[in-house]
Specification:
Helices cover 52% and strands 14% of the residues. By secondary structure, the chain is of the alpha/beta class.
Length: 215
């Protein structure tokens, strides 16, 4: 895998040290800097332009939601991964809408952080398995109703499932032994049938069908 440049922000020294240790143990991840406040985090991200920024959403000076909005405006190429102790569904939804690509609980970091970084790096959306059902419990209503009328082919279903699980088009093509263009076609057809407009919609649909539970 290509080198993944990561920045980290957390105001708890012990947590920050643990996160850095986890990341530094992964050979494909390069830590480009860390911060302990929202202001410092924004400055670090704007200066270093990492591939991924892991942000504690409860920093003392600026909320994670405000950081996400600021970074989406000023550094759209940087993918944000929210790290938190909170399991509030409404807040997860707000962060996803603001452009956050991953949401992971601190108590799951030891097992899932590096996996989350890898998934987000290739264009996926990663939701902590412990909160996925809570965060996205509402199925995509339009998708649920239309799926009764429009049935996916086996390949359309496979492509949509792998997309929900965070795999890139290139990775899906390699897994299914088809071209990237073919993957794009299957994904477009499936999304149209189920009225899934964004990647977050696909993740919601995947959660509703248990696709993320096997990750």
């Amino acid at each position: 895998m290509t080198d993944i440049r990561v920045a980290v922000a957390d105001d708890h020294p012990v947590v920050l040290a643990g996160i850095k240790s986890l990341l530094q143990a992964a050979p494909e991840i390069t830590l480009v800097g860390d911060a302990t406040t929202g202001k410092a985090a924004i400055e670090l991200i704007q200066r270093a332009l990492p591939d991924i920024a892991i942000i504690d959403i409860s920093l003392p000076d600026i909320s994670g939601l405000d950081i996400a909005k600021r970074i989406a405006e000023t550094c759209p190429t940087v993918k944000l991964l929210a790290l938190t102790v909170h399991e509030d569904r409404a807040y997860v939804q707000l962060l996803l809408q603001a452009g956050v690509r991953g949401y992971i609980l601190k108590r799951s970091a030891a097992e899932d952080l590096v996996r989350a970084v890898r998934a987000v790096a290739v264009g996926g959306v990663f939701l902590d398995p412990e909160i996925a059902d809570k965060a996205l419990a509402e199925t995509v209503q339009s998708g649920s109703s239309s799926s009764d009328k429009e049935h996916l082919s086996q390949r359309e279903n496979e492509v949509l499932k792998l997309t929900a699980q965070g795999f890139s088009n290139k990775e899906i093509a390699a897994r299914l032994d088809v071209s990237i263009k073919t993957v794009e076609t299957y994904k477009a057809r499936a999304s149209e049938k189920l009225n899934l407009r964004t990647r977050v919609d696909i993740v919601r649909y995947g959660v509703a069908h248990g696709w993320l539970e096997s990750l």
